TrEMBL record:
CDD domains: HATPase (cd00075), HisKA (cd00082). InterPro entries: BphY/WalK/GraS-like (IPR050351), HATPase_C_sf (IPR036890), HATPase_dom (IPR003594), His_kinase_dom (IPR005467), HisK_dim/P_dom (IPR003661), HisK_dim/P_sf (IPR036097), Sig_transdc_His_kin-like_C (IPR004358). GO terms for cellular component: plasma membrane. GO terms for biological process: cellular response to phosphate starvation. It comes from Streptococcus cuniculi. Residues 251-466 form the Histidine kinase domain. GO terms for molecular function: phosphoprotein phosphatase activity; phosphorelay sensor kinase activity. Gene3D superfamilies: 1.10.287.130, Histidine kinase-like ATPase, C-terminal domain (3.30.565.10). This is histidine kinase.
Length: 468
């Protein structure tokens, strides 16, 4: 891993790695903070709600304190229960009466949602801050002093048990109303402190936070590998584009070098024979003009390719069936002049929605290629028809064919199966590359197949109605 990281540091991928790694770090950092915040904000929610309920029910608070250790010598004044049931029970004497149902006296406190358990403690104090009730000896609360400055406020306090251990409590001190303590004669009850033991909760939260931290650190380390992978993936199209650009420049330079060399030689030859007339130099001049035309054709094709790369939008119009016949008629005449035959089967009978200019250029490229790569007495077959929702254009020839390896490269710019032969026939290896871009613009596909016994078949499938 360290070796890979060192190699990555010296490559263009490193900037992408830093970006991805920073994003992962930010995501996992925020997730950790959010989880911790949620855990800490909800760990005391139930106890704090109970505190508020108990503060609003001082009678219940006092009853809970009495049950947990208020002196039994205190006289309790009970309220008479008016709803107690009295029923007569028949006996042999018929004069006995027995209580049934609720007791005649009971302590009444308001209904609430309070949920009390052994973790809750209530300590009562007099007006001077002296503790009045007994508390659990092992809880360490016997040394807790009343904090009059934090009345009606929920705080945290820590006490030490007789065993020397620290216990953490959630606590709230409040002033008891006179009406609530009037039932307890003989005691100067003024304040009450409600406490909830949070030591176990804090221990559990600390354990959960440690687990979350370990998990997040684990994923954070995994994100390093993910960042390296994503940086490599992000760089692939850039490197591929850079490689294609490099090859394009090299190929374009190579294609331009030959005609420029010819032009230079011909012009230098003219300077070596200054006394020669135009007729004497006609061969050199004609050769120079031919090279100039080739260079013009090359630059035109390069310009067309550059425009396609910029995302040229097609102009969709109605294409009549006669358009295909009109486009191919000139090639039929050219083939006859070169001793070749073009056999056209045009079965389109409906209007097609597409770009006329691009369609004409596509057909020109395919037919021109078929004528270049067919034999001297070559035969070319052009089939144009519609099937389902598609327009099919098939161009076949009886040339020397294309190998499986070359089929993968023929759509690359400047690639030629037979460079010497193509050069003689005026090709630059840009036609099929331009054809593929036209087909992609028109949302179509192209396939290359072998024709038996020899030759090649190019089949184009385009939608009859172009849709964006």
């Amino acid at each position: 891993m360290l070796t890979k990281f060192r190699k990555l540091y010296h490559t263009d991928n490193f900037s992408y790695f830093i970006r991805y790694f920073a994003v992962f770090t930010l995501i996992f950092g925020l997730m950790t903070l959010i989880i911790f915040q949620l855990m800490r904000s909800t760990m005391y929610r139930s106890s704090d709600e109970n505190f508020k309920e108990m503060a609003n029910a001082p009678d219940m608070l006092l009853e809970f304190a009495r049950a947990r250790g208020l002196s039994s010598e205190v006289e309790i004044v009970w309220e008479k229960n008016e709803s107690a049931n009295k029923v007569e029970k028949g006996t042999n004497n018929g004069d006995a009466e027995e209580e049934k149902g609720e007791p005649e006296y009971k302590f009444v406190y308001p209904a609430s949602k309070i949920r009390l358990n052994a973790n809750y403690h209530v300590i009562l104090y007099d007006s001077k801050g002296n503790r009045l009730n007994q508390v659990d000896y092992f809880s360490g609360l016997s040394t807790l002093q009343l904090d009059k400055e934090s009345l009606d406020t929920i705080t945290e306090c820590t006490v030490t048990t007789p065993f020397g251990e620290k216990e953490t409590y959630r606590c709230m001190s409040l002033t008891l109303p006179t009406s609530a303590v009037s039932a307890y004669t003989g005691l100067d009850i003024k304040y009450a402190a409600i406490l909830f033991n949070t030591s176990q909760i804090k221990s559990s939260i600390a354990s959960y936070e440690s687990t979350v931290m370990i998990v997040m650190i684990g994923f954070w380390l995994i994100s390093i590998v993910a960042s390296i992978y994503l940086s490599n993936v992000s760089m692939r199209p850039i490197l591929a584009s850079f490689q294609k650009q490099k090859e394009f420049v090299e190929n374009a330079s190579h294609e331009l070098r030959t005609p420029l060399t010819v032009l230079q030689n011909r012009l230098e030859s003219l300077f070596r024979h200054p006394e020669a007339t135009i007729m004497d130099s006609s061969a050199n001049i004609a050769s120079s003009l031919a090279e100039v035309r080739n260079m013009r054709l090359l630059t035109t094709n390069l310009l067309n390719l550059a425009r396609r790369d910029d995302g040229l939008k097609p102009e969709i119009v109605d294409v009549q069936p006669s358009f295909f016949d009109d486009t191919l008629v000139n090639y039929i005449i050219m083939a006859e002049e070169n001793g070749k035959t073009i056999e056209v089967h045009q079965d389109v009978t409906e209007v097609i929605r597409s770009d006329k200019t691009l369609l004409k250029q596509l057909m020109t490229i395919l037919v021109d290629n078929a004528m270049k790569y067919s034999e001297e007495d070559g035969h070319i077959w052009v089939d144009i028809y519609t099937k389902d929702r598609f327009l099919i254009i098939r161009v076949a020839d009886n040339g020397f064919g294309i190998s499986s390896e070359n089929k993968k490269k023929i759509f690359d710019r400047f690639y030629r199966v037979d460079k010497a032969r193509t050069r003689q026939k005026g090709g630059f290896g840009l036609g099929l590359s331009l054809a593929k871009q036209i087909i992609e613009t028109l949302r179509g596909t192209i396939t290359v197949q072998d024709r038996q016994p020899k030759g090649t078949i190019f089949e184009v499938k385009l939608p009859k109605e172009y849709r964006k």
